[in-house]
Amino acid sequence: MNYQNLFSEIAVEAQKIEDSGAVATYIPELGNIDPNKFGIHLTTLDQRRYGLGDFDEKFSIQSISKVLSLTLAFELEGEKLWSRVGIEPSGTPFNSLVQLEYENGIPRNPLINAGALVICDILVSRLENPRKDLIEFVRQLSGDGNLDYCRRIAESEKKTSYKNAALINLMKDFGNINNDIEVVLDLYFHLCSIELSCKDLTQVFLYLAANGINPLTGEKVTSISNSKRINAIMQLCGFYDEAGEFAYKVGLPGKSGVGGGIIAIHPGKYCVAVWSPKLNQKGNSHKGMKVLEFLTTRTQSSIF
Amino acid sequence: MNYQNLFSEIAVEAQKIEDSGAVATYIPELGNIDPNKFGIHLTTLDQRRYGLGDFDEKFSIQSISKVLSLTLAFELEGEKLWSRVGIEPSGTPFNSLVQLEYENGIPRNPLINAGALVICDILVSRLENPRKDLIEFVRQLSGDGNLDYCRRIAESEKKTSYKNAALINLMKDFGNINNDIEVVLDLYFHLCSIELSCKDLTQVFLYLAANGINPLTGEKVTSISNSKRINAIMQLCGFYDEAGEFAYKVGLPGKSGVGGGIIAIHPGKYCVAVWSPKLNQKGNSHKGMKVLEFLTTRTQSSIF
Amino acid sequence: MNYQNLFSEIAVEAQKIEDSGAVATYIPELGNIDPNKFGIHLTTLDQRRYGLGDFDEKFSIQSISKVLSLTLAFELEGEKLWSRVGIEPSGTPFNSLVQLEYENGIPRNPLINAGALVICDILVSRLENPRKDLIEFVRQLSGDGNLDYCRRIAESEKKTSYKNAALINLMKDFGNINNDIEVVLDLYFHLCSIELSCKDLTQVFLYLAANGINPLTGEKVTSISNSKRINAIMQLCGFYDEAGEFAYKVGLPGKSGVGGGIIAIHPGKYCVAVWSPKLNQKGNSHKGMKVLEFLTTRTQSSIF
Amino acid sequence: MNYQNLFSEIAVEAQKIEDSGAVATYIPELGNIDPNKFGIHLTTLDQRRYGLGDFDEKFSIQSISKVLSLTLAFELEGEKLWSRVGIEPSGTPFNSLVQLEYENGIPRNPLINAGALVICDILVSRLENPRKDLIEFVRQLSGDGNLDYCRRIAESEKKTSYKNAALINLMKDFGNINNDIEVVLDLYFHLCSIELSCKDLTQVFLYLAANGINPLTGEKVTSISNSKRINAIMQLCGFYDEAGEFAYKVGLPGKSGVGGGIIAIHPGKYCVAVWSPKLNQKGNSHKGMKVLEFLTTRTQSSIF
Q: In angstroms, how far apart are the furthest CA atoms of chain A?
């Protein structure tokens, strides 16, 4: 595949897409972003890199980071993890309480808010310095020792995030949160506040295209089997109630964030990240999804 | 991959699996099946064939046939199809009415009962002789001109299927069924009554591993794009509320039926079918899922 | 209380009420009614009678008749009745399937559609000639031997009532319908098709203001205790998800129908019936509720 | 009615009732209560008083106090109140989040936890010293200037009440809580912690049997109309998902608390309070409900 030509085509195509969505405003700090930002970056397993637009500008990756906390908790807990969180699509919006109440405080999967809160609870229990150890894990994946949380975003979210407080209190009531609520929420908000560029993202997540190996260092991030399993979970649960749409149109496992970022993995081939802040009604980047659909259609690179 | 050796291993492994499920009894005729039947068959794109146990015995494929009616309706309607049925996982059991009521009679996807009823309604509208044309479509895929519905099963289901009658009446109330309810239900029960062996199944569904081409005849069943899309829908919706479990453990798109059959597709490589009548609590073949997990683990043949 | 003066006041008041609702159209025959019809009639325990407007014109009482079928079935079954239908408010619209699915096919109460269908199933089991015996029961209450079902309305509803067919099939699936679905639906549609005037209604339902005695004949319709219990059920369940509103504003047990009729009972004092076909968003007569609120406010005749 | 004789009969009857329930334990302090406590007290409008058993011992009235906060907030806000909380039965357990999520953070009624939290939010906005002013209001009703909150119970509930924290956070997210969450919860827990005896309760709530007048002082607590309306709300919403059962068997408006207390009102006649700590599966006093059923059956004093 000649990705250089492909990126030239994407540049033309991206211009044509009417960008009808709206920037997320529920976290005040996110509402300040320039809605016309657009970047895309692709890194192949053999470390070829292709970028377009604002691919080198850092932005708030938000829920995309839930894949990283899942990877870390899965390494620490193993299959035991699934007694506290499921692996099924939720069929409901990303922060619904209904299912939690019907299902005794066990979130459907680790990529919705409730599930990610349980993952954070596990990390608080397991790690010596949860906040420090978690960012260190991301730094190693990226090869950039200066990566950090955005305290401003974390604080902004903390002040306004009543829905997440409702979710964690409900789970605590069901006995599925072991640590102090404030401590777990603090880790969660920091997790969501990580800022990476599209270029960074393709590096950080490349291990999922590479059977669990960090291609930069050759170190094992997770087992082959777990790497496939995380991809499977992303495929089924990575886009809230638009997971089917993404599988249907893009055909790759991936994960979105309300900051407007999306990553997608072609196992054995590449990792691609796109950024465009305007979200569609389901909370996923409008233009980001369209560009990825174009990319996989042109390259016929669906896993299906 | 040496599939011959693999099948020897599977023969040993299948013996070890404790078969704790129960045969489906809600259709009286299904309850008469020998619960200890077990067969598996794999056909590769280049037409190598491997079988074990009762792989050549016909059984009621039930919901597996929903992939065939979907393929046919998708060819006839194209993208318009998705105005009447979704492509998202349901997150609920296979025959739930709750979601239908909340979502104005639009089923979540074409592989749950409600969705398959809508597909049958479309076939009734589109085909000259729906029952005849549908079985003819399956005959062409299989290369066996004698394949047929099992009238006994179809009649048995018709007499007892109050839940499906509830589903179709609810959708009719919402205006999402155009034809006479009795006519649509008749086609639906016949669709579910098709009997195929594991060997037949791997032949019939091989087009989904072959970019939409029937390898037997070289004829195009559906487009490359639609073939991938049907695989994506199977991956997300093929196992009711155990879709995540199947993606996680087996890692291939597939579809199960309450007759105890499961098919799975490795795009570009093979189609495999397994049959074991005892079902787990989610309504999927207990042993069938375990054997497929063993197969894909041993061959590392997950799409993820 | 000088009801004559009250009715003069009501005549003035009724003119003032802006009638913003809409006539029910889901049964085609109901849509043909003159939306400006308005009648009210009150009968006291000592057989004083007060009427206004179209109080002597018969109309389709629809769900109001569910109180009559309940009274009859309660006499036949006694407390055993409550194993098949509850006595709690539904908290949902009158024909919802959601609760039925969550609660194993046991309807919340006998005044929502699902509950009334169970009551009809009981009557089919218990009565020799269900249709004939039921109308005979109503004739005795009214003292009018010519009262009858409206076959045209019954047929009209039968042809279009997919939601009721969904409800009864779902309950049959749960084992809570013993007789043939068509037979039960036929009785149900006939039950709903009964036509009475406001004047008739106050006579028919007077037994509920009179501790279970038909004041016309002195015959016992039901026991004191059952009479109070039926009133209690009406109070909690007689207005779908507007039961609280009716209790709050009118303060009497009552029952509405989509034909625009409402009856209300002041135990020990009177029965009042009102008719105005335009319904509010909850499916209850808009003007009817306002007039009854005026009546009980002016007379301070709430039971609370 | 000879209440003296009635109370002798109740003494005999109460012995016979098998007390199969369980003491509430979700608030640790409540679990310490002697499960065999039993008291009942009735006060008539003309200030005759009848007591039995532990009728003069104070206990935690818990949710019964929600009627008092409602009365106070209703006086302060008037009909405007109903834009923030409904008057319909919930049809679900007392602390469900499901309905709140579906209905945009507007609780179904002021007697479930969510609704009482909104009422507390209103009191925090309206009163100068919410905690002090609220207890003062109760003191005036009772004529006992020493009545107080139980700080131990309030603290105990505060530490363990994750479900209430979930509810209020969810409503804050929907914009239906105006004040600081901690402040509102503090008032709520104090409200629930009030300790009164059965004798106190019949005095405190007598205004609802007396058209809103405090018979002790002759002062107007609330208007006639509001008094009736509060009774109507109690009738429909006072017993969570057992409201229909209470209306059916007891036939009076009332309110229960998890401390095992129940009050019931016969408008124009009396107020009765009963206490027995063992709760049935719906969270209402098992023996309390049975004794009240006996009382109203013997005296035929249902409002229906």
A: 55
pLDDT grade for D250, boundaries at 50, 70 and 90 = very high
- The neighbouring-strand residues paired with B279 are B22, B285
Phi-psi region of B251 (alpha: psi -120 to 50; beta: other; left: phi over 0): left
CATH number of C3-296: 3.40.710.10
Choose among B108, B109, B243: nearest Cβ to A88: B243
> Is the ipTM here above 0.90?
yes
Per-residue DSSP letter, D150: -
Say whether residue B242 is in contact with chain A using an 8 A CB cutoff: yes
* Tokens representing residue B163 in the block: 């839940």
- CATH code: domain A3-298 is 3.40.710.10
Model confidence over B87-108: pLDDT tens digits? Answer: 998 876 656 788 888 889 999 9
B contact test, residue of C172, C173, C174 with most B CBs within 10 A = C173
- Helix H or strand E segment including C43: strand C39-44
**Model confidence pLDDT, tens digit, residues A16-75:** 988 788 888 777 778 888 999 999 999 999 999 999 999 999 999 999 999 999 999 999
Q: Is C19 on the interface with D (CB under 8 A)?
A: no
Contacting residues of D for A167, CB less than 8 Å apart:
166
Handedness of CA B106, B110, B115, B118 (dihedral sign): positive
C-alpha span between C14 and B130 (Å, rounded): 58
- Residues B7 and B50: their CA atoms lie apart, in Å, by 7
Are residues D56 and D201 in contact, defined by beta-carbon separation less than 8 angstroms? no
Share of chain B above pLDDT 90, in %: 82
CB A148 within 8 A of CB A155: no
Which residues of D are less than 8 Å from A165 in CB distance? 165-166, 169
Question: Which chain C residue shows the shortest CA-CA distance from D212?
Answer: C304
What pLDDT, on a 0 to 100 scale, did the predictor assign at position A95?
62
One-letter amino acid at B218 equals G
Least Cα separation, residue A263 to chain D (angstroms): 29
| Chain B contact present for A298, CB below 8 A | no
The owner of tokens 């979130």 is: A107
Angstrom distance (rounded) from CA B43 to CA B65: 18
Closest chain A residue to D167, measured at CA: A166
- Give tens-digit pLDDT for B110-136: 999 999 999 999 999 999 999 999 999
Q: Which tokens is D185 given?
A: 């919860």
C-alpha separations of D241 from C232, D90, D153 in Å: 15, 7, 25
Residues with Cβ within 8 Å of residue A213, at least 6 apart in sequence: A207, A219, A220, A221
C-alpha–C-alpha distance, residues D92 and C83, integer Å: 19
Entry pTM: 0.93
Q: Which of B92, B96, B101 to mutate to test the interface with C (most CBs of C within 10 A)?
A: B101
Residues of A in contact with B267 (CB under 8 A): 303-304
- Whether residues C244 and D92 touch (CB distance < 8 A) is answered with no
* Both tokens assigned to A273: 């990240």
* CA A198 to centroid of chain Cα atoms: 12
Is the CB of residue C95 less than 8 Å from the CB of residue C73? Answer: no
| Alpha-helical regions (H) of chain B | 3-16, 66-77, 98-102, 113-126, 130-142, 151-160, 162-173, 181-192, 198-204, 224-237, 243-249, 286-299
Q: Is D167 on the interface with A (CB under 8 A)?
A: yes
Residues 197-236 of chain C whose Cβ lies under 8 A from any Cβ of chain D: 224-225, 227-229, 231-233, 235-236
Quote the crossing angle between the two packed helices D130-142 and D113-126, to the nearest 10°: 110
Q: How far is D139 from chain A (nearest CA, A)?
A: 34
B159 CB-near residues (< 8 Å, 6+ apart)? none
